[in-house]
């Protein structure tokens, strides 16, 4: 573990990074007990509050867990796929909400990643994935469906397409793209979108996946990406041209 801290930069962040790197490299294996707070203070030559802040950062990332008692302390966590999945969604949501990336950049990345799943999904999808996609298309067609529920259904449709690839690494990578980016895209474009057009593209995708035709599904995703970006441009232009309310 690198215990040399730089003069610039928050000390607790540097300590958390050093411990995290040791966990990732395997120097601190799963269930290993970390050095005590006193030992960490000595190693890094910092105060106890600084060490505690570093440990809080690691705990917030689910990298460590803290146990009380005589045999307690901080231990390296065994991170489950579900926990990593949720963390990916949270991180992506924060980045988007803080406007760290533009809508067009997020949209481009989101559909490029999903297109990477199409061939595998066409090959590996099972009856449950197809049934979910069909059920969501039917749900989206219901009169009176609220925008919020349409968004939920939209996410569920694309989640089924991604999970149909049968690759948990791709599912993890796309967790943020689908479940963080998709709601944001819907929130920005819902006032301008044509549900019938989206449903038509979803139907084309589902038909192609069922027919094991990745080329058609991919082409429809390209169309859906272009349509979403155009909607965002239209909404932005409409807002710019909207006259300000008089006082």
Plain-language structure description:
A two-stranded antiparallel sheet has the order 1-2. With 247 residues, the protein is mainly alpha-helical. The model has no long low-confidence stretch (mean pLDDT 86). It has ten helices and two strands, in the order αααββααααααα. The chain is elongated. It has two domains: 11-76, Arc Repressor Mutant, subunit A; 81-233, GntR ligand-binding domain-like (Four Helix Bundle (Hemerythrin (Met), subunit A)). The termini are far apart. A hairpin with a 5-residue loop joins strand 1 (64-67) and strand 2 (73-76).
Structure at a glance:
The chain is built from ten helices and two strands. It is 70% helix and 3% strand.
Secondary-structure map:
Blueprint: H1 11-25, H2 37-44, H3 48-60, E1 64-67, E2 73-76, H4 81-97, H5 103-124, H6 127-140, H7 147-163, H8 168-189, H9 195-210, H10 214-241
Antiparallel strand pairs: 1-2
Q: How big is the Rg? A: 23 Å
Strand content: under 5%
Helix content percent band: 55-70%
Q: What's the CATH topology name of the largest domain? A: Four Helix Bundle (Hemerythrin (Met), subunit A)
Q: Domain count, please report it.
A: 2
The counted number of beta strands is: 2
Mean pLDDT: 86
